[in-house]
Amino acid sequence: MTTIDQQRLTAKETKSIIDALESAIIEHGKWLTNWHRNIICSLPLSDDIVDKNAHQISNFGKWYYAKQSQILIEHPYFEHIDKAYQNLHEHARNLALKAQEGRKITKMDYASFLAKEVELSEILIKLRDEFHEALFSFDSLTRVLNRQAFLRILAQEHARAFRTNKPCCIAMIDLDNFKSVNDTHGHQAGDVTLQAVAQYLTENLRPYDSMCRYGGEEFLICLPHTQLDIAKNILIRLQKGLAHFSIQVTKKKSISITASFGLAISEQNVSMIDTITRADSAMYAAKHGGGNRVITWGDKA
User: Fold this and answer.
1) Catalytic residue, candidates 119, 217, 218, 267
2) Which member of 70, 120, 146, 273 lies 3.0 to 4.6 Å from 84 by CB, making a disulfide possible if both were Cys?
3) Is the CATH number of domain 145-296 3.30.70.980?
4) Boundaries of every domain in the chain
5) The overall pTM is greater than 0.85
6) What is the pLDDT of residues 103-142, one digit of tens each?
7) Contact status, residue 223 vs residue 168, Cβ threshold 8 Å
C-alpha cells in the first residue's frame, strides 16, 4: 500500500513528480555510464566524479537538492536517497582517484561500489513505483480520486475521528437531471460537465478535505475534524455556488447544473460503510425533495 498522502496530491502533481523522477533517474544513468567510461578508458575525470561535493553538482544532485514538492520531501524513500547517494559518490570518487593514480581497484572495491549503486537504484525505483500506484488511484475522466483509493482514506479518517475524538463528516453529491445533459448536448458535453463540477468542488473545498468520484455523476466528500453544523454550512456554500457556476459544454453553449447533497457524521458504533449509506440516503431525500439542496441524514427534505 502506498505511503503517499493522496489527500494532498492531485493527478497533475503526481504526473509531474513521476516525470521529474524519470528524468532524474536517466541523468543518474548517464553519470554512471560516464564514470565507467572515464575509469576504463583512463579519461580525464570530471568534477561530478572527483569533487568533494560531486553529489550536489551532478545533474541528479541538482534535481535532488533543489526545492521539491512537500509530498516528495516527506516521503521516507526520498529521505533515504540522500545518504545512499552520498555514499555512492564518495565510493565512486575514491575509486576514480585510485585509477587516476595508477593504483589497483580490487574486486572487493568494485563489488562494494556496485552494491551502493544497487541500493540507490532500488530506492529510486520504489519511489517511482509508489507514485505510479498513486496515479492509478485517480479517476481517468475527472482526475479526482477513484472510489477504491478514497475508501482507504475514509477508513483512516473514520478511525482517526474516534481516536482523536474529533468528528468527521461525509457528504454524497449527485448531479440533478444529469441525464438530460447527455440527451440534449451529447455524452461529450456530459463528460465536460463532470470534469468541470469535479474541478469546481475540488477548488472550493478546504485544503484538508478530500473527494472522489463515487460512480456515474456521484461524488463523495470527506470533511475531517468538522462538526455537523459547520459541515452543512460548507455544503450549502458549495451547493449555491455550483448552481451559479457556468459550464462551457460546447464552443457556443454554456449550461448550469445543480446537485443534491446528503450529509452524515461518523458515529462510534456505526461503520464507515453504514455512514456512507446514511449520506446516500440523505442525498436521495434531497433529490426527492426537488434537488439543489442539502439534507442531513435523519432530517426531512
Assistant:
1) 217
2) 120
3) no
4) 6-135, 145-296
5) no
6) 999 999 999 999 999 999 999 999 998 888 888 888 989 9
7) yes
